[in-house]
Amino acid sequence: MASGNPSRPSPQLAARDLVHGLPASKVREVANAGFGQSGVLRFWFGESDEPTPEFIKAAATAALARDEVFYTHNNGRDDLRQALADYVSGLHGCARGPGEISVTSSGVSALMIAMQALLSPGDRVVVVTPVWPNVTAIPAILSAHVIRVGLRPGAAGWKLDLDELLAAMTPDTRLVILNSPGNPTGWMLTAQEQLAILERARHLGVWILSDDVYERLIYREDMAYAPSFLRLASAEDRLISANSFSKSWLMTGWRLGWLVAPRALETDLGKLIEFNTSCAPAFVQSAGLAALREGEPMIARLRQELHSKRDRLLRQLNAIPGLDCPPPDGGMYVFFRIPGEGESLALAKQLVAEAQLGLAPGVAFGPEGEGWLRWCFAARAADLDAGAERLRNWMATTSASGVL
Ligand SMILES: Cc1ncc(COP(=O)(O)O)c(C=O)c1O
Predict the structure, then answer these.
(1) Which of 50, 75, 305, 355 could make an S-S bridge to 102, C-beta 3.0–4.6 Å?
(2) End-to-end alpha-carbon separation of the chain, Å?
(3) What's the CA gap between 40 and 244, in Å, rounded?
(4) Would you identify the CATH topology of the domain 17-51+297-394?
């Protein structure tokens, strides 16, 4: 077969069917359509437009000058594991030690390693959706069977039907995955819901994987960080928390994350880290250490700024007649809908081409997200204003021409 057609590789050159069949990122598909087009306002990716703080960069530079360029322990350096154990224990009032921490080369690698440790082919995995696509792609890569429990939109935000989730957790379920605060919806679990899920998981012997990467970025006056399973669980519970330096410390490009897992998994997680990346880079671990030691003021500032950007974007979108914009409790996204618009991938491409507005299509996060669009508000206020203006003008023109 001709090698020119990437969708039909010759059998000799093909990846295994399961990998070849993985869907390509639909966020990327929109972004690729917009690259090369000048003047597009880009809100499609999940990262801030603000670079990493100087004190973190300085720590990495100093570490490089000290020749921190060698392999480290698979599970991470002792000083960083201790600092992470202290950080997690202080934040969530739990007594976790360094043996329960594994440092990984990013949050997504943390999720992959946790699932490699737990999942066998055919295992039943329950996931609350819509969700960042990697969360459902990883069990699929591992030949596990994903059951989706869909959140529902409402005027006060996206909501979980707790009974539906508890019913989906059956005796033959191996793992339940929750991402709260959630990407793309900004939905957040309450402590009561977490307790109910934990009790059901204990009763059935189901593992919980909690993706906590947005736990510091929440927009409720009554809370400084999201409720955590770590506060409720004991060190012996079947609970793994996956986390990352990417969002709270503005370190997306550094690729540093961590897992909090029962001590019994420490050695096996270390083996998997060996076979994935062997370790996170030493100088990046030094940057992470500085982020933990000196980062609280910057997180407080970031959270406040994101809160006001969220409010600003919601105000602007709510002023456009007809938009459906459930307010997010946390995260970095407004997930909204233009009534009458069905196919979010086509719509997102149309908005890039006709309004120079770059948003992520909701279908990228699963069928429950179809018809919706994700807007990352971790951007300059002036860009958010200009983007909302573009949307308003595009909708006015489109409805005047009878399309909407
Ligand atoms: C829900 C969720 N989990 C995990 C990650 C992983 O972040 P990283 O791999 O940059 O640490 C992301 C990034 O967008 C995310 O949105």
Answers:
(1) 75
(2) 44
(3) 29
(4) Aspartate Aminotransferase, domain 1 (3.90.1150)
* Distance in angstroms (rounded) separating the CA atoms of residues 186 and 331: 5
pLDDT digits 0-9 by tens, 120-141 = 999 999 999 999 999 999 999 9
| 246 Cβ below 6 A of ligand 1 | yes
Ligand 1 contacts CB of residue 180 (under 6 A): no
Please report the atom of ligand 1 found closest to the CA of residue 179: 1
What residue spans define the domains of the chain? 17-51+297-394, 55-294
For the stretch 177-205, pLDDT in tens is 999 999 999 999 999 999 999 999 999 99
Cβ–ligand 1 distance for 106 under 6 Å, the answer: yes
Query: Cβ distance 232 to 194 under 8 Å?
Result: yes
| Average pLDDT over every residue of 383-402 | 87
Determine if the pTM surpasses 0.90.
yes
Residue with tokens 């993706």: 211
Atom of ligand 1 nearest to the CA of 109: 9
Cβ(351)–Cβ(386) under 8 Å? no
**pLDDT given for residue 402 in this prediction:** 52
Which of these CATH numbers, 3.40.640.10, 3.30.390.50, 3.40.50.1580, 3.30.300.160, describes 55-294? 3.40.640.10
The tokens for 283 are 């100088």
Q: How many angstroms does the Cα of residue 363 sit away from the middle of ligand 1?
A: 18
Nearest in space to 241 (alpha carbons), one of 267, 217, 213, 216:
213
Three-state SS letters, the chain: CCCCCCCCCCCCCCCCHHHHCCCCCHHHHHHHHHCCCCCCEECCCCCCCCCCCHHHHHHHHHHHHCCCCCCCCCCCCHHHHHHHHHHHHHHHCCCCCHHHEEEECCHHHHHHHHHHHHCCCCCEEEEEECCCHHHHHHHHHCCCEEEEEECECCCCCCECCHHHHHHHCCCCEEEEEEECCCCCCCCCCCHHHHHHHHHHHHHHCCEEEEECCCCCCECCCCCCCCCCHHHHCCCCCCEEEEEECCCCCCCHHHCCEEEECCHHHHHHHHHHHHHHCCCCCHHHHHHHHHHHHHCHHHHHHHHHHHHHHHHHHHHHHHCCCCCECCCCCECCEEEEECCCCCCHHHHHHHHHHHHCEECEEHHHHCHHHCCEEEEECCCCHHHHHHHHHHHHHHHHHHHHCCCC
